[in-house]
Amino acid sequence: GSGQVAMYAGLQELGVANGEDLKETLTNCTEPLKAIEQFQTENGVLLPSLQSALPFLDLHGTPRLEFHQSVFDELREKLLERVSAIALEGKLEERYKKLEDLLEKSFSLVKMPSIQPVVMCVMKHLPKVPEKKLKLVMADKDLYKACAVEVKRQIWQDNQALFGDEVSPLLKQYILEKENILFSNDISVLHNFFSPSPKTRRQGEVVQKLTQMIGRNVKLYDMVLQFLRTLFLRTRNVHYCTLRAELLMSLHDLEINEISNVDPCHKFTWCLDACIREKFVDNKRARELQGFLDGVKKGQEQVLGDLSMILCDPFAINTLALSTIRHLQDLVGQDTLPRESPDLLLLLRMLSLGQGAWDMIDSQVFKEPKMEAELITRFLPMLMSFVVDDHTYNVDQKLPSEEKGPIPYPSSIPEAFTKFLQENRIACEIGLYYILHITKQRNKNAFLRLLPALVETFSDLAFSDIFLHLLTGNLTLLGDEFALEEFCTSLFDGFFLTACSRKENVHRHVLRLLLHLHHKVAPAKLESLQKALEPTKQ
C-alpha cells in the first residue's frame, strides 16, 4: 500500500534496493529461493563475522526483520549522537560543512519515518538550512510539523503570515486568561488581578511559548511586537500592553542580550518592573525613570510610542496610581501643594504618557501629551481636601459633643469634581483609585459621598472591568453595610443598575458581588435586585 511506499521513500535515489526491487527480482526469476538468498547477501549488513552468526539467530526463531530493526535502531542512536557532537566540534565553517554534506546525502530520505529523526536533527543544528530545503519542508504539512523550533524560526523569519498563524491562537488565549481572572468568582481583597508578581506572571504558558518561539531571533521578536501594536490599535485592549512588557522581561530573565539590548525600552521597562513588584515608585527609581524620559533625543521620538505602550500596561497604571494616592496623603501631612512636588509631577507625566498610548500610536505623532494645569492646581488639591475632611470628621467624633450635637459627615461633592471625572482622563483614573483607597479603608461615609460622581465618567472608566474587579473586591470589607437599605440603594440603584442594561460586563460584576455577599443583603432588597438583574428577553 501507500504506507509501504512512504516507508521506503527516497531509497532508490540513493541506489539502495527496496521492496519494489525485490518484487521485480522475484517476478522475473526461475529459482525464487536462490534469488532471495542472493538479495539478502547483497543488501544485508556487510560484516564477515555476521555470516556465521545469523543462522544461529535463525535457530532461536529470531526473525531477520527484528534483528535488522535492532541493529538499525542502535545505528540511528549512534548517528544522532554523532550529529549532535559534530555540531559542537572543530571550526565553525568545518562543522557546518560536514552537516551540510550530511543533509545533502540524507534529505531524500526525510519522508522515511525511521530516518526522519536523523534528517531533522541535522537541520536543527544548522544555523542556516539551505533555502531549497526550507521551501520543501514548508510545503509539506507533516514535515513542517515534525521539524524542530530552530528550523521553524528560519522559516518564520521570512514568512510573517505563517508566523502570524502560529502566534495568533496564543494571543487569543492570553486575552482570554486575563478576562477569566477579572470575572473570576473568587472575590477577595487579598487576591486580585494585580496580586501575582511580575516574575510569576512571566512564567505563564503563553509568555513562555512565545519566548521559546522567538529564541534569539530579533526579527521574530520585532514581528511579535508588530502584532501586539496592531492588535492594541484594532481593539484598544490594554492586556496587549502587558504582554509587550512581559515578553521583554522574559527575554531579560533569560539574559538574551541579542534582543533586550536592541529594544530601546529595555532599561526603562526593567526599572518599572521593579516598581510594579513593590507596587510603589520610590524616589531613587523615580529619578531613574525620569532620566530615561528626559533622555529621549531629537530624531528618536518614536521610542515614546513604545514607552507609552509599556506605561499603558494596567500593572504599570496600577502602580503609578497607587503611588499617586500615597503621595497626596503625604502632601496633606507636609502642608505642601501638588505643584511643589517633583515626584508627584513625574507620576502624572508617566500616567499621561500611558493613558495617551493609543492616540500616539494611532496618530504616529510622537510627543509627550500636554499636562493640563488644572489637574495639578485644582483637581489634586480637591482630593487632598477630601483627605482633610476625613481627618477633621474623625477628630470631631472624638471631641466631647456640645449641645449642638455631633457634626455630620459632609455629604455634598463639589461640582468640579464630577466634571473632572467626566472630562479629564487622568483625573478620572486618579479619582477612581482614590475611591478604591477609601473603600479599602472601610470608609463608608467617604464612599457614599463620592459614589454619585461615578455614574458618568470619562469614557465610562468607572464601568471598566479592571475598576469593577477591584471595587467588588474592596466592597467585601464593607460586607456588614449590605444589610442596610440605604447603603444598598446607593450602591445598586444609584450606581450599578444605571449601567447594567447597556453593559453586559457590569451585569456580570454585580452577579459576582451578590454571589459572594447575598447572605448579607436584606431579603426584601435581595428579591428586588434579583428581579432587576434577570436577563432581558433578548
From TrEMBL:
Entry GO CC: NELF complex
Signal peptide start and end residues: none
Pfam families, sorted: COBRA1 (PF06209)
Transmembrane segments: none
Xref: InterPro entries: COBRA1
A GO BP entry: negative regulation of transcription elongation by RNA polymerase II
Coiled-coil features, chain-numbered ranges: none
Name of protein: NELFB factor
Source organism per UniProt: Bucco capensis (collared puffbird)
